[in-house]
Amino acid sequence: MNFPAHFALSSLLGIAIWLIFLLVGLLLAYLVIRFGVFHGLRAHTRWIDEGKDRRRDTHEPYNS
């Protein structure tokens, strides 16, 4: 291999590695955000349900 071909191959390899790390980072960020939103909504639903008046009919629990 001459120098320019070797340089082109190494730069393509560097770009491919950078893209792989970028995709893995974006996937991890998506999973962390999804995990946080899911557990936040679940906790909020439990908090709302614990504040309901248990003596009333619970068919429409979020009406004021």
Automatic annotation (TrEMBL):
Transmembrane segments: 12-33
Assigned keywords, A-Z: Membrane, Transmembrane, Transmembrane helix
Protein name from the UniProt record: Uncharacterized protein
Organism: Microbacterium foliorum
